[in-house]
Amino acid sequence: MSLQIRRAAPEDADAIARWNIAMAWETEQKQLDAETIGRGVRAVFEEPRRGFYLVAELDGIAVGCLLVTYEWSDWRCGDFWWVQSVYVAPEARRSGVFRAMYAHVKAMAEGAGAVGLRLYVELENERAQATYAGLGMERCHYYMYEAPLL
């Protein structure tokens, strides 16, 4: 079994949008609007300052992705890289796909001089929390708040 991690290309946008729709439903039972998520994914490719996607391929078939965005920290004078929109196709789960994507992102972040990696996870998603802890990530002491504007 061959596992490759690569930077996503604009041709991957439709698959990434579908995976985001599937992930939102699986984790939050939230129905995303296909038009909006499609525009949102394409916007990352159109404006690199927003971040980038990685795609995992298992035996040459795309089976997962994640998005990296940036948060400037004046306290640390550097960027945190946020891992978002993680999805692994059901048939590829528990085969090291996320672990490989995470290792790839971590190496990229270290090489770029980032000050840390962050992500958020649903409170009830204990499997994901265990995965992240198993990779050496620690739960932060911050709560996340949101003020929707749309």
UniProtKB/TrEMBL annotation:
Matching entries from InterPro entries are given as: Acyl_CoA_acyltransferase (IPR016181), Bact_Acetyltransf (IPR050832), GNAT_dom (IPR000182)
The record's section on PROSITE patterns has: GNAT
Q: A Pfam family this protein belongs to?
A: Acetyltransf_1
Q: Which UniProt keywords apply?
A: Acyltransferase, Transferase
Membrane-spanning residues? none
Q: Does the keyword Protein transport apply?
A: no
Instruction: State what protein this is by name.
Output: GNAT family N-acetyltransferase
Can you tell which superkingdom this protein's organism belongs to?
Bacteria
Per UniProt, residues of the N-acetyltransferase domain are 3-150
